[in-house]
Amino acid sequence: MMARQMMTLVANYAKILDNDLTAPQYFVLQTLAYEGQQTSSYFANALNVTLSAVTNLSNKLVSKGYIERVASSTDRRQVYLKITEQGREVEARMIAKYRELNEGLWSDFSDQEMDVLIASYEKMIEHLQLKISQSKAEDGSND
Question: Per its UniProt entry, which superkingdom is the organism in (predicted)?
Answer without folding.
Answer: Bacteria
